[in-house]
What does this fold into?
Amino acid sequence: MGIKGGIWVRGVAICAGVVLLVLLRWVLPSYQLILFETGLCFGIMGLGFNLLLRHTGLLSFGHGAYFAVGAYTVAIIGRYLPGLYRMEILLPGAVAASAVVAAIFGFVCVRHTRIFFSILTLALSMLVFALLVKLYYLTGGSDGIRAPIPSILGHSFQGMRRPQFLSGFYYHFLLAAFLVATALMYALIHSPFGKALQSVRDNEVRAEMIGIRVRQFRWMAFVISGMYCGLAGGLWSFVNGHVTPEVAHWVFSGEVVYMTLLGGFKTFAGPVVGAVLFTFLKLYAISGTEYWMLIIGVTLIGLVLLLPSGITGAMASWAARLRSLGTRKI
It folds into this structure.
């Protein structure tokens, strides 16, 4: 199969996947569909997280902070500025707020790499967690804030129950946001900016020698990554209906790392696949046993030992072997 044939096959597969995702609304029960929506939100966050991990080589343990900033921006506007509680204001507000926080935190973090970078991101996320808990009169403390159903382009959903909203119009809205975010990220990592990030990851000294401002590129990648997390947090707040400080805790940030490893950080789709699988795995583990963390831990150990490149990485490897065997027979 030539290059053109491969492009056609890939295009047809993507179109078929999009159609399948659109039809899921009428196939899955409401509960499963809402779970899937949670997975899509985490998938957007995973795309942003993997921009740092895969394309700059920076491992963050604090991306829950930007997710929390996006979610709390939505909830706080709903509580204190109900007149502005419209989707066309909420999502840009969530992305802008997370971008500001990521720009400040990134300015501090990208000065370091490896374990120092990871520890800094973890510490700053716990700072956000502490503020969300202590600023009770603004954030609701450990009780959090409710996130009502918003209006969208002047259309109000007043009187509609949340499951009905989530399994109806909102699913297609969320899916559209997910597809746009995915397409933008794909374009970004294949742009000159994405190639520059990869050169920084591969050899920082050589990148500097050819004129790439290493720290500046890392900072921009950090901010974009934070914006994706903020968008995911804003979209997730409507799915969950309630925002609490736990999403800024390091445990949640650790789950983001787990999702990405589960799906495979070396492939573009890996974090999305991992996010959806992790959402279902965690929920069924929690509903099945009080020792659900044991299940999560065992799967993580098995994953690292048996599938170090994640599920999509292993599938890509198996597909390459099959193609190789087919070529030899010819």
Observations:
- The mean pLDDT is 83.
